[in-house]
Amino acid sequence: MYEHKTVALLRDQALDEVADDVDKREGAIIFDSTAAVAVPMSEMYSDIDLVMRLTFADSSDGEYLERRIAEHGVYKKEASRAVRKGIFIGTDERPFKVPIGSHFGLNNLTYEVIEKIVDGEYQLRSEAFGIIGNQDYGELLPTEPLDNLGNATLTDVLVPGEDEETDESLYAKYLDHINEPAFGGNRADYKRKIMDIQGVGGVQLFRAPFGGGTVRAVIIDSTFNVPTPETVAFVQSKIDPFEGQGDGLGTAPIGHIVTIEAVESVVVDIDATLALVGVTLGQIEPLVVEIIDEYLAEVRREWIKGLPLILRISHLESRILALEGVQDIVGTTFNGSATNLGLPHEIPNKGSVVLNE
């Protein structure tokens, strides 16, 4: 807004206010005086520009964006810690009892044992916040000696850890709040409350699937995959716990019976024939598989829009054709069919990949 308020402009404006019978040439006293004042004045206008930018949500960021939209009751989703499954076997090859609160390490990350699942299996919580806690798998080492512990393994992600919400996501949530006011158990209210729960990346809502007063909420996790039973149970307990369902013990309004379900997935087997130049099938196959993974992940992220998903053969083939050494691709099929694959409510997951030459 004030980009034009340069030092030179402000100096010249000040000189214009000086009588013409005064020496205003460069090097004169009045010239040097006005030039010295113009510098802080230009900085002041720059600061005003910054204040104006940070005042409005559509141009603000960071702390100021958070403060601006908090006035409307919208808050940033904070980073959370992953909950993982650990399997513990004693030196006698039997399930090992691990003390609650004990700590184990893997690849510079530490995990705390927080709850028993069954004998030899426990929930562990990452001490690091964010998606980094979702990533590692393998052998755990105790931070303090545990007698008779034979082997400890970090396995499934039960509730995904999440990074702090980005400014872009926060602003989009703010616009949703303004354009679709959440109130008293309406669709926007359910969506907002469920999306605020750790591990949830998206939700689709269905009205009265089991009769009047019932709501079905299907969720996808924050990694845009099928959520674990533990994540589903966690969300159910927050929204409408089974103990006293419909009594308003969660965030769902009293009288609403809410069922949380995991999105279903469809395994997609992919076949294709490639014409290659200068590379072998063995060299190109890992790159093709990586492209397939990226494409399926991109399609899964679209699930949150609530529209049917479509896997398009042309979209996948165009990406594979961009690989160096791939001259042509023909005969691509999804689950044995040479047509696009429509998924009304499900998400796609990679099955077998067969590449021919």
TrEMBL record:
Q: Which residues form the Baseplate J-like central domain?
A: 182-261
Q: Where is the Baseplate J-like C-terminal domain?
A: 268-355
InterPro entries associated with the record: Baseplate_J-like_C, Baseplate_J_M, Phage_Baseplate_Assmbl_Protein
The source's domain of life comes to Bacteria
Q: Which family does it belong to?
A: Belongs to the Mu gp47/PBSX XkdT family.
PANTHER family, per this entry? PHAGE-LIKE ELEMENT PBSX PROTEIN XKDT, PROTEIN JAYE-RELATED
Please give the name of this protein: Phage protein gp47/JayE
Q: Which organism is it from?
A: Sporosarcina psychrophila
